[in-house]
Design brief:
By secondary structure, the chain is an alpha+beta fold.
Length: 710
């Protein structure tokens, strides 16, 4: 940022002025909303101003937490003698503190130190809130301690009852509450910071035929890197030599290591298994997938959910009510003839008890934890509203190819006739197809290898245009092809095979035939393979009360077969890409809340039209604009995780809002002295305890979300 741009709007945390960023968001240390702060002209240059994202600002967390801890202990030590010299202690315990010259002014001196040393953070925070036109927690605390302090100054010299013991205990307890809360919040934020620790510090680079260890910052694109067994992948790369299983759990949430071979892509921060790998670096620094994940998580944490907007508005109204109610309480008690010190104490108690800190923390902290938890489980939340919408979804619409199915051919059945074996049918077909790059041929060869069949060497290989292939195997003519091959030879499908072939056609399966010396040995059926994960996902959605639907460009027969196989409630067949969004509108007109699951490229209009757009199989592309949530891997079961996390997040938010608002509803009248006629009074120090406890409870309740399984 150019330091000449003096009017650049910055945002800061009222509690942590060292946290600065150039867009609205949430403090990474305490969870409070950042407020605008106009940068003073010529005050600092870029090197002095930390205007980076809230993640980098988070490095100050330890400093600020220890600062509150230090201020708390200092204030506590100074508060003890103030309390010992208070009239209330003398009355209750019938004990008189030792007198010495000037002892009458000891509460004034120590109380002033506590006010300016311990309370200064609240005063400066209030000033920032007022400047940002967002009065809140700090404003209320500042008014409360200022009223108590300045009345007490007057009271000392006017022989009235001072409030120094209430003032010092209030500040001390507030400091302790903030310290405990910040520890809780920093623990909640820690998971995201752990992402930045996934990368190794060094990398072994192969240059000029020799291996040298360099710092990660010195790594360049196109470098060749040696990754030893058990080492971390230093950058997004392509494997150029070697095979290994790579642990990607920290990125995708997949517990099982993923098999990787030459040509496969590996992600920075993942852990190599037992094999040594040579990799070619494709992305470094901000271009890496991990950096993209962190950016998306931060953007999601900076965005607001509807509940957060509601809680922000409630906190603002509560502030206005507290200030108004506090001064009405003060005036009412004065009119009623109460002593000024009593009336001021009621004002202070009302302002303290109404601090909307718990309310302001209730939603942002839960949302922050949930977006981080999502990233750890293999899906990235781009917008908080998207995660919030997931709990209301009652229909999930899947794109078939590449989502419910693998998008690649696989052998689903092998049939044999005339006394020949299935292995014989498959072995001969694979021997010829081994020379072809066609997807169907690859699937046949893969199945033969899976069964452990040895392939025979074909001779005089010949492609039969539009019909199949022909070659000599062990001096016998072998042909492999589809129904057109049989027609060209004027052969009919035998009765014992015709029913199976007909059924396969209805399912949209491709059937090829194996012939030797112009005699049919059998047939092989191939289809786009249904993912086993899809069955689990559809079943789990049913158990959650969520309907599943499928959309595909395939024929009615294929769509019906896949739908029946998976137990899908509804399907749309022969749908062209541009018609997908129209089908979503049809569902929405029925009053359904629809989540669309697609690949994020061809399905962009549909993803945008849906109530919730989910891009599946994003791999390393973390910038799909059309989706609110992005799945790192092609696993439909993650849809269930999204809905579960959304419901858990919403539940936690409601619990926190209920606690934060319910506490204020009960405590405010007590603080104002509504039950004073029954001898029930809420002293300012006790009000501070309740306020701090409510905030810590809200923070602790939010942190419980971190350990829940989704």
């Amino acid at each position: 940022m150019n330091h000449n741009h003096s009017d650049k709007e910055l945002y800061t945390c009222p509690m942590h002025p060292e946290v600065l960023q150039d867009k609205p968001g949430m403090c990474p240390e305490c969870g409070m909303n950042l407020i605008p702060e106009r940068k003073k002209k010529g005050a600092m240059d870029h090197g002095e101003h930390n205007t980076s994202t809230s993640l980098s600002a988070g490095k100050h967390a330890g400093h600020s937490t220890s600062m509150f801890f230090r201020k708390f202990w200092t204030s506590l030590v100074l508060t003890i003698p103030v309390v010992l010299y208070a009239d209330v202690v003398e009355k209750i315990f019938k004990w008189s503190p030792p007198a010495f010259p000037g002892s009458d002014y000891l509460p004034l001196i120590l109380g002033s130190i506590v006010f300016f040393y311990g309370g200064w953070v609240f005063l400066t925070g209030a000033w920032r809130e007022i400047r940002g036109s967002l009065p809140g927690m700090m404003t209320l605390i500042a008014i409360a301690i200022s009223a108590a302090y300045f009345w007490s100054i007057y009271a000392v010299f006017a022989a009235e009852e001072a409030l120094f013991w209430e003032l010092t205990t209030l500040i001390t307890i507030m400091l302790l509450g903030h310290y405990l809360e910040m520890r809780a919040v920093s623990g909640a934020q820690g998971a995201l910071k752990e992402l930045s620790k996934l990368l190794p510090d060094t990398a072994e680079v192969i240059r000029n035929g020799t291996t040298e260890t360099i710092l990660l910052s010195e790594l360049r694109e196109n470098d060749t890197v040696l990754v030893r067994p058990g080492a971390k992948i230093p950058a997004d790369s392509t494997i150029i030599d070697g095979e290994s299983d790579v642990n990607e759990s920290m990125i995708t949430g997949e517990s099982k290591p993923v098999s990787k071979k030459e040509g496969d892509f590996v992600i920075a921060g993942t852990i190599n298994g037992d094999g040594a790998l040579k990799i070619n670096v494709t992305n470094i620094g901000e271009k890496t997938f991990l950096a993209g994940v962190m950016r998306l998580v931060l953007e999601a944490q900076a965005s607001k959910s509807r509940l957060q907007v509601l809680s922000d508005r409630a906190a603002l109204y509560l502030t206005i009510i507290a200030v108004t109610g506090g001064f009405i309480t003060l005036i009412a008690w004065l009119i009623a003839g109460a002593e000024v010190s009593f009336a001021v104490a009621r004002l202070v108690a009302v302002l303290v008890i109404a601090c909307p800190h718990a309310l302001g923390l209730a939603v942002p902290l839960v949302a922050s934890i949930s977006t981080t938890k999502a990233a750890q489980n293999g899906f990235l939340v781009k917008q908080r509203l998207a995660l919030e919408a997931a709990r209301t979804i009652d229909t999930v619409l899947f794109d078939k190819t590449g989502t419910l199915t693998k998008g690649e051919f696989g052998v689903v059945e092998v049939w044999n006739i005339n006394g020949h074996t299935k292995d014989e049918v498959l072995q001969l077909a694979a021997s010829l197809d081994n020379l072809s790059e066609h997807p169907i041929a690859k699937a046949v060869v893969s199945k033969a290898k899976e069964r452990g069949l040895s392939l025979k060497e074909p001779k005089k290989f010949e492609a039969l245009k539009g019909r199949g292939v022909r070659a000599l195997v062990e001096e016998k003519e072998v042909m492999v092809g589809g129904p057109i091959l049989l027609e060209s030879m004027e052969m009919n499908i035998p009765a014992e095979l015709s029913k199976q072939v007909e059924d396969a056609g209805k399912k949209g399966q491709t059937v090829i035939f194996t012939l030797r010396d112009r005699r049919l040995l059998g047939a092989i059926a191939l289809a786009d393979i249904i993912r086993e994960e899809s069955r689990e996902a559809v079943k789990a959605l049913k158990e959650m009360g969520v309907k599943s639907a499928m959309i595909t460009g395939d024929s009615e027969d294929v769509a019906k077969w896949v739908s029946d196989e998976l137990g899908i409630d509804e399907y749309f067949a022969r749908v062209l890409p541009h018609q997908k969004s129209e089908k979503i509108k049809e569902l929405q007109k029925r009053g359904l809340k629809v989540a669309m699951v697609g690949d994020g490229i061809n399905d962009a209009p549909a993803l945008t039209q849906a109530d919730l757009g989910i891009a599946i199989g994003a791999g390393t592309n973390v910038a799909i604009e059309s989706a609110g949530i992005i799945l790192v891997r092609n696993d439909p079961r993650d849809i269930v995780k999204i809905i579960n996390l959304s419901r858990m997040t919403y539940s936690k938010m409601i619990q926190n809002l209920f606690w934060a608002t319910g506490y204020n509803v009960v405590a405010l009248p007590l603080a104002a002295g509504a039950l004073a006629f029954k001898g029930i009074l809420l002293q300012p120090a006790l009000a501070a305890v309740f306020m701090s406890v409510s905030t810590v409870i809200v923070a602790f309740n939010a942190i419980l979300l971190r350990n829940k399984q989704i």
